[in-house]
Amino acid sequence: MTKEILKTTMLNCSLDEQSILAFxxxxxxxxxxxxxxxxxxxVDSPLEDNKELLKSINYVANEIKACADVLVVIGVGGSxxxxxxxxxxxxxxxxxHKNGIEVVYVGxxxxxAYIRELLAYLDSKQVYVNVISxxxxxxxxxxxxxxxxxxxxxxYGDKAAERxxxxxxxxxxxxxxxADQAGYRQFAIPDNVGGRYSVLTPVGLxxxxxxxxxxxxxxxxxxxxxxxxxxxxxxxxxxxxxAVMRHILFAQxxxxxxxxxxxxxxxxxxxxxxxxxxxxxxxxxxxxFPSTVSFSTDLHAxxxxxxxxxxxxxxxxxxxHEIEGDMQVPFDERNEDGLNYxxxxxxxxxxxxxxxxxxxxHAEGEVPVIQLELPKLDAYHLGYLIYFFMKACAMSxxxxxxxxxxxxxxxxxxxxxxxxxxxxxxxxx
Length: 429
Ligand code: PA5
Hints:
The structure is a single chain. This protein folds into two domains: about 5-35 and about 220-405, Glucose-6-phosphate isomerase like protein, domain 1 (Rossmann fold, 3-Layer(aba) Sandwich), CATH 3.40.50; about 40-215, Rossmann fold (3-Layer(aba) Sandwich). About 45% of the residues lie in helices and about 15% in strands. It has helices spanning about 15-20, 25-35, 40-45, 50-65, 80-90, 110-120, 140-155, 175-180, 200-210, 215-230, 240-250, 265-280, 305-310, 345-365, 380-400, 410-429, and strands at about 5-10, 70-75, 100-105, 125-135, 165-170, 185-190, 255-260, 290-295, 315-320, 370-375. Strands 1-10-9-7-8 form a five-stranded mixed sheet, sandwiched between helices. The chain has a five-stranded parallel sheet with strand order 3-2-4-5-6, with helices on both faces. Helix 12 (about 265-280) packs parallel to helix 15. The chain is globular. The N and C termini lie far apart (about 65 Å). The structure holds 5-phosphoarabinonic acid (PA5). 5-phosphoarabinonic acid binds near residues 78, 138, 194 and 279. Its EC number is 5.3.1.9. It is found in: Cytoplasm.
C-alpha cells in the first residue's frame, strides 16, 4: 500500500485492503496508548543523539579486535539472540568479516559438553569476554560467567579485568555489583528497554561491532524505521499492516505463523524473531505460535506439511531483492545432468524464482502468504527490519490485549528448577 523502504504485501488469500483498514481506529488507540508502557524506551531511542554511545562502543570493539582472536559473548534470550542474528546475516558463510574477529556465544544453554569444548577451543587463542544480562542473575549466563571469569583469571592474572566487559543494568543486580567490585568496564542496558527489545542497545551493538558490522549503518536504518513507522495511519505504516494481517489470520484459524526466507544466513535472525513474538504474545492462552523455515532446505523437510497438511499455517516471507555475492551456473559441455539451459542464470536468480514458485504453490494449497520486501541485505536494511518487527510486535500483542513487555511464563521453569536445586543450596549454607 505504501512507498516506504519495506513493503508489506498479502500475496494471496481473501485479505483485502478494506478488511485491514477496518482496524484503523483500534490501531490508533493502541498507538496512542503505547507510550504509557514503561518498557518502550526502544521506540524513540534510534531518533536520539547516540553518537557518543556508538563512538564508545566502536572504541572498545576496536581494542578487542586489536588484542583478541575471539570474543566470548555470555548471554541468553534477548541478551544474545539479536547479536547472533545480525552477525550471522552479515558475515561470510565461511570465514570472518574483513573488519571483524570471531564472536562465539556461551551461557545460552547448560550443556557441560558445550562449555568444556569451548574452553579447550579457546586455549590457542587470545580472548575477551562480554557478559550480558539485564537482571544480572539469570542462571545460564551466571554459571557460564563463573567458569569464564575463573578461566580468564587463570590465563591473564591481574590483566583479566581489562579483558572482561559487562553489559547490564546501570544501577542494580548481582552482575553490576561484581563488575563494580572487580573494576570491569561496563555498558548500561537502559532500564526501560526489555531483553527482547534490546538488540539496538550495547547488548547487540558491541558483539556485532566486534564481528565487523557497521553499527552506524545499522542504527541509521533503525532511525529511518523509527521515523517512518511513527505514523499512526495504518495505510502508511507497514509494521501496523503486518500486525493487523496476522491478527486477522489468527482469528480465521491460522494459529501458526512461519517466518520464511530463502537465504540461509537469516536462520539465526528467524530465531530472534521467534523469541520476540513468542515471548511478547504467548500469554493468557492466546497468541500465534511462531515458527520458522529456511528455504529451500526446509522445502525438503516440512514443505509437504505446509503444502498439504492441516490448514493452520500462514507464511511470512522475507525477501531481500539484493544479496551480496552470487555465482553464474557454469557451462558443462557434457551436460549429463541436462542443466545447461540454466547457464544464463545466477544462483540468486534461480533462488528468487524458486521463491516465486513456492509462493504460487502455497497459494494453490491455501496457505496465506504475507511478503515483507526490502531492497538489500545489509546493515542499514537489517536495522530497519529489526525495528519494524519490534514495532509490529508491540502493536500485535496489544491488539490481542496482552502485555508485549512482560514474560511471566518464563519464570515458571526457573521457579521449578530452583526448587529442585534448593536442597543443595541449603546443604552448603
Ligand atoms: O526478553 C527477555 O526479557 C528475556 O528473554 C531475557 O532477555 C532473558 O531471560 C535473559 O535475561 P537477562 O538479560 O536478565 O539475563
